[in-house]
Design goal:
Elements lengths: L9 H17 L5 H36 L4 H33 L2 E4 L6 H15 L6 E2 L15 E8 L6 E6 L8 E4 L9 E5 H7 L1 H5 L7 E11 L13 H14 L2 E7 L4 H10 L7 E5 L30 H4 L4 H7 L2 E5 L5 H12 L3 E8 L7 H11 L3 E6 L7 H13 L3 E3 L6 E2 L3 E8 L2 E9 L11 E8 L2 H15 L11 E3 L3 H17 L5 E6 L5 H12 L3 E6 L16 E6 L4 E2 L2 E5 L6 E5 L5 H5 L1 E7 L3 H15 L5 E3 L19 H26 L6
Parallel strand pairs: 1-6, 8-9, 11-12, 12-13, 14-25, 17-22, 19-20, 20-21
Antiparallel strand pairs: 2-4, 3-4, 3-7, 5-6, 7-8, 10-17, 11-15, 15-16, 16-17, 18-25, 19-23, 21-26, 23-24, 24-25
Amino acid sequence: MTLDSYHVDKELSWLSFNERVLQEAADKSVPIIERVRFLGIFSSNLDEFYQVRFADVKRRIIIDEERGVESHAKELLSKIQAKVVKLNQDFDHLYNDILLEMARRHIFLVNERQLSDHQAQWLRRYFRSNILPYITPIMLNKDVDVLSFLKDAYSYLAVQLKKEGEEPKYALIEIPTDELERFVKVPEPKGKRQRKTIILLDNIIRLCLDQIFSGFFDYDTVEAYAMKMTRDAEYDLTNEVEHSLLENMSESLDQRLTALPVRFVYQRDMPPEMVSKLIQVLKISDYDSVLPGARYHNFRDFIGFPNVGRKYLENPPLPPFESADFQLQNNAFEAVRQRDILLYYPYHTFRHMTELVRQASFDPKVRSIRINVYRVAKNSRIINSMIDAANNGKRVTVVVELQARFDEEANIEWSRVLTDAGVKVVFGTPGLKIHSKLCLISRREDGVLRDYGHIGTGNFHEKTARIYTDFALFTADQQLTSEIRKVFDFIENPYRPVKFNHLIVSPRNSRRRMYKLIEREIEHAQAKRKAGITLKVNNLVDKGLVNLLYKASNEGVKIRIIVRGMCSLVPGVKGVSQNIKAISIVDRFLEHPRVFAFENGGERDMYISSADWMTRNIDNRIEVGAPIRDPRLKDRIMAILEIQFSDRAKARVIDKAMSNAYVKRGNKKKIRSQTEIYDYLKHVERQELKNAEKLQHDTPPVKK
């Protein structure tokens, strides 16, 4: 058999990852409100899967048909459809089970038929004053082009107005979750204060349909059914010379609104003639996914499901702590100048990063700031500090990635705000997405310029830094900062020759460097020296890298992998990957860092990176990986990885069957790695402070 036989389709592997998310919703050891939120995460993930992965498969089928070649994508599409149907069935069963468990804890998520008369009257008044102003039905008739206004992945109510002897009339009502909360707490009658009742915005609208249509249409009955459609999220930039990239991006967002659907989900008891009507107006093809579902769609809103009950119904807080390295110095620059600093979010506070750029914005010694922006928070303190720095006369350059999927609109707006403030905004090169996480601050010290750099695995985003695990390296190592400067120059001038000796930079040297590092481990194994590879990535699907790992395994290199999402590699196959073990961890925080460690004959090399092991990240994006040189920080990262490899609570085995079986505990202590890491790092920081205090106490005063 060829090695191609040992590559799992990335789309099926992605669905297997989302099944692990659903496992968290099913896990009764997870607090009930968190289980509801995992249903929301699963739904949000599935939306993105259809917008990106499914849409890509559909496109491949169409291209193969046009070329007249046999398409593997058709078979893959069938497998995807079958897997999604199974996952949706599991989802529906889980949702019903969770509703019952919430009811046992006196939390009731009700529909419009389960209200008392008092509650129904209250909601009708609430609807008229709070919701009705946001409701405008769109009537479905021959003069209306539904695809021109229907929003991608939004939830709608499809309404049927019936009068005896006449053809039914149809309308669509958008659930206005952009303007209003999806969940409304309903007042309880006296004597039932312990009970908490919540109703979805959708069901309030169902209750009050007459308030919308009465007086405008003549009908005997009015019924509403949930529906949602998902569009292809990919698009091509126009190449008109007279248009700026910013203008092109704005147009492409408009184009997305009219892109054809790839999925149509409808309430399973919707009348067949209504389903047919919607399939027709939405121009659903034979390759699109048409799925019957429950009464509610856009479960992604359930990520924000409120806890109206006791505190124990959601995860106890793990408040982020400060880094001793930063605490022990007067300002951020003094701290970074002392030695490299490594933070691990969300355990460490993101405030150290925001404080660094805040100090830089007014520090008279700072001359310039350069930073990449891929995704940022809605009210970003990072961006505000860039504006403050420009106001203070600093030279500020912000590289904005306009093609950050699903964040394009926000990034376009930030670009305009920054430009208006006098910040130099760089958009990079079309077709070469900038995914690196870099910041470079130049400061004049003792008559010379000194650079301070940041290289990270995650975005400069205050919100995600509280829920994603990510490494951030702060360094004043001039070998590294000089190459960070080269990356920024490369972004602005991508066709000029540039060489990197220390950083691993896509698309310049990543593939060559990664191949070389793996091949070096093979040479060590062949020479009976210490050889091993430890990887932590979000996705591992690049065929060249997977095949080289197979070769390393066959040469005796021990390989351990932690992969969150897609994994095309099949571990544990005799004669192919018998020396490879892989696990996946899904827990309260989203595992997001990329770490590559190579034993190198006993002199371990270690890198953190923004790049996954995907072809696009290696060859078609600007990504940056940085060596970890401080032995203290290497040991810290390895300790974190060892804790994760010892996880016996949230770790699943990656195998060919994509079974998602939990790692067996056996006689070993039950270890939940994310909480163990929190305790470990908190202890490390306390010990650092104690050591500093002891050193200060033991150091004799300087004689005058």
